[in-house]
Design brief:
single chain, 374 residues, alpha/beta, Rossmann fold, eight-stranded mixed β-sheet, 13 helices, 15 strands
């Protein structure tokens, strides 16, 4: 498998002349898949990794084994325990760096460690050189901090990330389509609703439409609703206007399938997340109205709810695209090329506290590498 893929990441490290940084250590919170394995093993050669926390709703046992074989500490908590695990392991990494007079780099998806650092370990902030972040969710976490006391460099606000977002939308629909086919269910000709018309939401909507579904778009941003309308989709500013969708997908990064929407869904609707974590659906409300629950598929639970109807929750509210291969590795890897560049920028430039997207000229280098090697 490793020989099949062009060495996008190695070429990125060579073109930017990534150095080794023996006086720095990485604290990593990541999804653990083969593409991430290649990234982490490469970065470990340049900036040794002190600890990796695998995100609980994603991962691969073989990847964990290979990381451990490389001498890296790997912790794989359940998603319910990720916050407490990040806190305890971050304390351990900070103590190690302080004892050895090393600098710590946070490398994460989702903003877990940057939040824990500011809320629980303020005295150790001088030990942390900064953070690199892959997701918008992590950028939002940093933006929400009262005072951001370290730099956060990200590839979540770049043009290549927008391209990847479209592919995530396709992966959401492809994974859902596979599940529904296994249940003997056809998408074509049925109504669907999608909450969110950002990068992932737009890709999701287009992919549903290509499969013959009649899609209504919900969004709190009226500009995005105009965009959806111009693209030819029905729009809904109010939950009561979504009609009777057979499938509803949340793709906002926040809770979007609220209690009132859940209550209005018709019998035998599928509730799906197309964003990170399990934020999109009001799972507490769904459980509160559930009278009986049973599995109809390894990734689908039937909830018999008040009102004499059954709702189908996909992947327990976690992203449906994590039930399969999600986005192809070579798409993710142009973002990982960007992340490698962020590591060099952080360690060499040492920016002041703040939020910094990857510079345009460096993003163009990552794009050129991808074109050259593909």
């Amino acid at each position: 498998m490793h020989n099949f893929h062009p060495d996008f990441l190695g070429e990125a490290a060579r073109r930017i002349a990534l150095k080794t940084y023996p006086r720095a250590r990485q604290f990593v919170v990541q999804h653990l898949y083969p593409d991430t394995l290649r990234l982490l093993l490469l970065l470990h050669e340049h900036v040794p990794i002190h600890c990796i926390i695998g995100i609980g709703y994603s991962g691969n046992d073989d990847v964990v084994s290979e990381l451990k074989a490389a001498g890296i500490r790997v912790v794989t908590p359940s998603f319910a325990d990720i916050h407490t695990t990040v806190e305890s392991e971050l304390a351990r990494s900070l103590a190690h760096c302080e004892e050895q007079q090393l600098e710590l780099v946070i490398h994460e998806v989702g903003g877990y460690a940057i939040k824990a650092l500011h809320e629980k370990f303020e005295a150790s902030i001088p030990t942390v050189l900064g953070a690199i972040e892959v997701t918008k969710q992590g950028v939002w976490v940093a933006e929400a901090l009262p005072i951001l006391k370290i730099p956060q460099l990200n590839c979540a606000q770049t043009r290549l990330k927008e391209i990847e977002g479209k592919m995530v939308g396709e992966a959401v629909v492809a994974a859902l389509d596979n599940i529904l086919r296994e249940l003997g269910y056809a998408m074509v000709g049925r109504p669907a609703a999608v909450a969110g018309y950002g990068w992932v939401g737009k890709g999701t909507v287009h992919s549903l439409a290509k499969r013959g579904m009649h899609v209504t778009v919900m969004d709190t941003d009226v500009i995005k609703l105009v965009d959806a309308a111009v693209d030819g989709y029905a729009i809904a500013q109010n939950p009561k206007d979504i009609g009777t969708p057979h499938i509803i997908i949340g793709a906002t990064g926040h809770q979007s399938i609220h209690a009132d929407i859940i209550d209005s869904l018709p019998n035998r609707s599928f509730i799906v997340s197309g964003a990170s974590k399990n934020h999109e659906t009001d799972l507490v409300h769904l459980e509160s109205i559930t009278l009986n629950k049973y599995s109809i598929h390894p990734h689908v639970d039937a909830h018999e709810v008040k009102g004499n109807k059954t709702l189908f929750l996909v992947n327990k509210g976690y992203p449906v695209n994590f039930t399969g291969s999600s986005v192809p590795d070579e798409i993710v890897e142009f973002l990982f090329c960007e992340l490698i560049m962020l590591v060099r920028e952080l360690l060499d430039q040492r920016p002041a506290p703040g939020i910094y997207p990857l510079k345009n000229d460096l993003e163009e280098v990552a794009a050129q590498i991808w074109l050259d090697l593909r």
